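Methods — Computational structure assignment.
A single polypeptide chain was analysed. Its primary sequence is given first, followed by the predicted tertiary structure written as structure tokens.
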Amino acid sequence: MKKLLVSILLATAAASTWAAMQTATLSVPGMTCAACPITVKKALSRVDGVSKINVAFEKREVAVTFDDAKTSVPKLTKATEDAGYPSTVKN
């Protein structure tokens, strides 16, 4: 019985620490030329945990898929801001 209880506790603890993939859509109004999306994408790709970046230049938006155990939305917006393109989370 003790082994079963320990196994359940360990499985529960491990499951709670598993990361979840999240997707955030960022509004980046400063993307005004053809080179801007390249710079924004490059900045976001340097953030640990980012796995996918989809830039919609016409909409001035970026969809970013990331591991929430490695990064967060504030880190993503900081990366774009540091690259010269302030962004906000689009609702």
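Note: The chain is about 40% helix and 25% strand.
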